[in-house]
Amino acid sequence: MSQSIPLVDLKAQYATIQADVDDAIRRVLENTSFIMGPEVSAFEASFAAYCDVQHCVGVASGTAALELTLRALGVGPGDEVITVAHTFIATAEAISAVGATPVFIDIDPSTYNMATGALLPAFTPRTRAVLPVHIYGQPADMTTITAIAGNFGVPVIEDAAQAHGATWAGQKIGGLGRAACFSFYPGKNLGAYGDAGAVTTNDAEIAEKVRLLRNHGRHDKYLHEIKGYGERIDALQAAVLSAKLPYLCEWTQARRRVAARYAECMADLEIMLPHVDSQADAAWHLYVIRTSRRDEMLDYLKKQGIGAGIHYPVPLHLQPAYADLGYRPGSLPVTEAVARSCLSLPLYPEMTDEQQDRVAAAVRSFLEM
Ligand SMILES: *Cc1c(COP(=O)(O)O)cnc(C)c1O
Predict the structure, then answer these.
(1) Which atom of ligand 1 is least distant from the CA of 90?
(2) Which of 8, 91, 284 should be mutated for ligand 1, with most atoms under 8 A from CB?
(3) Could you give all domains of the chain from N- to C-terminal order, each with its CATH number?
(4) Number of Cβ atoms within 10 Å of the Cβ of 272
(5) Is the pLDDT of residue 3 over 80?
(6) Is 261 exposed, middle or buried (0-12, 13-18, 19+ CB in 10 A)?
(7) For residue 260, what pLDDT is reported?
(8) What was the pLDDT predicted at 317?
(9) Site residues for ligand 1, CB cut-off 6 Å
């Protein structure tokens, strides 16, 4: 049998950048600046430039980026944050961690992003932030979301964990709201070799506040201005990320090529292919199709050695962890329909045409059974 095809192939990526990454790691080991220091500031400066924003603050993870941003905005107990249930749980956990309540609204049936029509009715006097997710690397409609939230004087925070390098209306993700939260979890479009994250913003006050919060409330070693947290980015991870960042444009282009080729190979099939908004240039973190025979197709692909996945099978409003919020099956019909039918196909920059053809052929042969 031919070799299996994983959902993402981090080994293939490492093979192409080994010298850069090994050098970066050696540099940190030799200068022994493991916490904060030059590697962290250098990465922050280059990632800010990459996102066309003024400030980037490196933190311990994407989850920490979300949580510290909410804290920097003063969101806390009694407050509500409007978000989506079709996302990784960290989006909502950050809201819960600061003591606020996530208010889940439905998603758009074609882009799977926050349904802008559901946003206005979700506002209450307690709404303190709106937290859209650029799901699968497809930017949410930031024009409409920031306009609606702006009318209430409420900030928009982008969950950009899956969308490094995506653009909306010609502008890079990361500077479209008050702040954006990135994850560098290994499998993300820009991945560290461990946990890491960042907050990007054009708001100097928020950047400053996140800087304090991530490092025990201090600038000075022995002077703690506020009560903070130990949520710094690791210098080794910052060095790895600096080594990888110069390749990100190329990787994103490669993802776009793979996505376009999938669309070509599978155009005639009875499945729903991803839709990209005309204002968006997606970063293609995942290539997600929809089929009513999802579970069977997943099994079939696995048997063919194809590492498909589901993002995400159980929406957050129906998770046991959020049972206390009182949502029921049927509360968010589009979210629930997508959760039942979505299937992520392998997509990574190093994917060969031959690998892609095998995936497309397997999808085709399943549908023909
Ligand atoms: C990965 C991810 C996160 C969390 O990032 P971590 O770095 O794993 O903490 C948050 N939101 C979304 C949408 C994600 O995909």
Answers:
(1) 10
(2) 91
(3) 10-105+112-246 (3.40.640.10), 248-367 (3.90.1150.10)
(4) 16
(5) yes
(6) middle
(7) 98
(8) 98
(9) 61-63, 87-88, 90-91, 133, 159, 161-162, 183, 185, 195, 197
Residue 244 reports pLDDT greater than 90: yes
Distance 270 CA to ligand 1 centre (A): 31
Query: How far is it, in rounded angstroms, from Cα 26 to Cα 359?
Result: 38
Give, using CA atoms, the residue closest to atom 6 of ligand 1.
Answer: 62
Task: Find the 196 Cα to ligand 1 centroid distance in Å.
Answer: 10
As given in the structure block, the two tokens for residue 66 are 């979300």
How close is the Cα of 95 to the center of ligand 1, in Å?
Answer: 13
Angle at which helices 294-303 and 353-368 pack, to 10 degrees? 130
From the CA of 183, how far away is ligand 1's center (Å)?
A: 5
Q: Enter the pTM of the model.
A: 0.97
Q: Given ligand 1 and candidates 63, 133, 134, 288, which is best to mutate, with the most ligand atoms within 8 Å of its CB? A: 63
Mean pLDDT along residues 112-129? 98
Pairing between strand 179-183 and 197-201? Answer: antiparallel
Q: Quote the tokens at residue 361.
A: 């052929």
- Alpha carbon distance 168, 156 (integer Å): 15
Q: What is the pLDDT of residues 288-326, one digit of tens each?
A: 999 999 999 999 999 999 999 999 999 999 999 999 999
Which DSSP category does 226 fall into? S
Handedness of CA 296, 133, 130, 150 (dihedral sign): negative
pLDDT bin (cut points 50, 70, 90) of residue 220 is confident
Q: How far apart are CA 162 and CA 226, in angstroms?
A: 31
Positive or negative: CA dihedral 203, 209, 210, 215: positive
Indicate which residue's Cα is closest to atom 5 of ligand 1.
62
What confidence category does residue 182 fall into, taking pLDDT thresholds of 50, 70 and 90? very high
Q: Which two tokens stand for residue 118?
A: 């559901």
